[in-house]
Amino acid sequence: MDTIRYTADGPHRGPGRRALLAGGTGLLGLLMLGAAATTTVPRPGTAGTSATGPAGTLRLGFFANLTHAPALVGTANGLFARELAASGTTLETSIFGAGPAAVEALNAGAIDAAYLGPNPAIAAFTSSGGRGLRVVAGAAAGGAQLVVRPGITDAAALRGTTLATPQLGGTQDVALRTWLAAQGMETDLRGGAVSITPTANAQTLELFRSGTIDGAWLPEPWASRLVLEAGARVLVDEADLWEGTDTGAPGKFPTTVLAVSPDFAERHRQTIDDLLRGHLAALDWINTAKRDSVLDTLNTALEQLAGAALSPAVLERALGKLSFTPDPLSGAYPRLLANAAAASLAEPASLDGLVDTSFLEKARAARTASGTGAGA
After folding, report:
1. What pTM did the predictor assign?
2. What pLDDT is stored for residue 47 in this prediction?
3. What compartments host this protein (predicted)?
4. Closest of 296, 238, 294 to residue 118, by C-alpha
5. DSSP run (H or E) holding 123
6. Where are the alpha helices (DSSP H) in 268-325?
7. Torsion from C-alpha of 318, 198, 133, 118, nearest 10 degrees
8. CA 64 to CA 3: how far, in whole Å?
9. Positions of the chain with pLDDT under 50
């Protein structure tokens, strides 16, 4: 399996190049990509061996992050490679540090499929007039919290504080702004009742320790790291804000989805079928394997790809907040887009065609027929 890591000076191949591309995962950032300098370069040639048959290579992008656990497991355990090999397709992986960079690579033809957050996927779809990508499955759900200093015990105590989110217009940034508005504290891009500072997750931990910020709305494992390593307390668990009307179960909301290039999917349907079977196999393994094996596999992958493993306590707490499911939870997407629009970080748009579960349904049927299960 070949791996490309995207760095600030472009894509690099090989296990020795571990620097990840820094950047944001927000709706606003994606809408501005057209005016930004590109950091991804399409590889020469084509991904497939023919116009409509199985592709010679599937180029898959994901993050070295716990919320992308199906991708970590699918590559580490050879589950993707095994399913793809049955049709003569090889796997090439690209490691990203930001949603916009992965979307840009997808749009440029540098990769064929990617694990993304729901907000970057929505933004890419709406900003491209529905041509940019298709969500074909869910991957992870849940796992986001507002964690704050111990002295902050209610929403009123947040007035005048400084909070961080991973990226302006990103999933957690929109969630924080929406919750603050519901508490009567309006925010805007310049500040408001609460100052919101877009900050890389690793830097957020250090800024919280130093007292520079008062809290943050973060995905896992960063919420757990602030709680267990820096003494933060949970003020809001985002799971409590999802009553189940949109997603079919209380507390569930999408965190990571699997998206594909519509053009690639049309030309190489068999390859996407194979990818989805590998995806379901990874989810099944995460949800049914012995806990110690899951923890060891994920931490080894994080150490290899991100340069550092998590402490056992952080890993256990973070996984306890996440669930891994192929359900894209698409009922949540209109709400996510409406919240971003209310925060002046997106424009209202149609989401018709964003989600295509036909590949997922076919993969589930194939796994059932083979006796390997239908997927988590």
Report:
1. 0.85
2. 43
3. Cell inner membrane; Periplasm
4. 238
5. helix 118-127
6. 269-288, 291-306, 312-321
7. 40
8. 12
9. 7-9, 14-50
